[in-house]
């Protein structure tokens, strides 16, 4: 019988909070059971295993990021949209480091197809329409933006910029300006 009050959604949200506290890699069904002061077996009526829990956290994180990005992009285009989009990723990662890590979790094809990942790609492509890129350049630019955003945020979260001047916020601003300039002058093949 299921433990009263426990649902897959409640466990997912608690798992996401746990990820932010201890790191996504440390999230397990056992650790979650300790948090609720229940036996691990009590959770298996809601979760299959730790991979299922991590998949659910990843899906939650992707959805939260997509919702934030959609709100931030409303009514914006060009450089303003690019900057807003970049800030969403950086701010989310800083506020929710475990969930941000979860958003990078490799999903199986079925879960990936049902995730908000497609919304992220659509929003990125919508931003790039303002730069008048066609295929395959648009796909290259999507990959470039994802790589730069993720690389910068990951290095910043790991403390990679904390021991030198100028402040990483200044570097972030310059990075976004450089991306805008690059996209405006995208090299011809």
UniProtKB/TrEMBL annotation:
Classification via SUPFAM superfamilies: Homeodomain-like, Tetracyclin repressor-like, C-terminal domain
Cited Gene3D superfamilies: Homeodomain-like, Tetracycline Repressor, domain 2
UniProt xrefs under Pfam families: TetR_C_33, TetR_N
Molecular-function GO terms, alphabetical: DNA binding
Superkingdom to which the source organism belongs: Bacteria
The HTH tetR-type domain, residue ranges: 5-65
Protein name per the record: TetR/AcrR family transcriptional regulator
Organism classification: Bacteria, Bacillati, Actinomycetota, Actinomycetes, Kitasatosporales
């Amino acid at each position: 019988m299921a433990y009263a009050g426990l649902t897959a959604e409640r466990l997912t949200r608690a798992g996401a909070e746990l990820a932010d506290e201890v790191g996504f890699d440390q999230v397990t069904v056992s650790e979650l059971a300790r948090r609720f002061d229940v036996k691990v077996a009590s959770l298996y009526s809601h979760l299959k295993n730790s991979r299922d829990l991590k998949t659910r956290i990843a899906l939650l994180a992707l959805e939260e990021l997509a919702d934030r990005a959609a709100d931030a992009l409303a009514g914006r285009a060009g450089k303003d949209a690019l900057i807003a989009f970049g800030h969403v990723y950086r701010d989310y990662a800083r506020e929710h480091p475990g969930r941000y890590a979860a958003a990078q979790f490799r999903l199986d094809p079925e879960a990936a197809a049902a995730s908000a990942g497609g919304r992220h790609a659509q929003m990125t492509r919508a931003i790039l329409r303002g730069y008048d890129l066609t295929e395959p350049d648009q796909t290259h630019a999507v990959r470039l933006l994802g790589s730069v955003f993720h690389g910068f945020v990951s290095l910043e979260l790991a403390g990679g910029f904390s021991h030198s001047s100028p402040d990483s916020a200044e570097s972030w601003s310059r990075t976004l300006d450089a991306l805008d300039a690059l996209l405006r002058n995208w090299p011809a093949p």
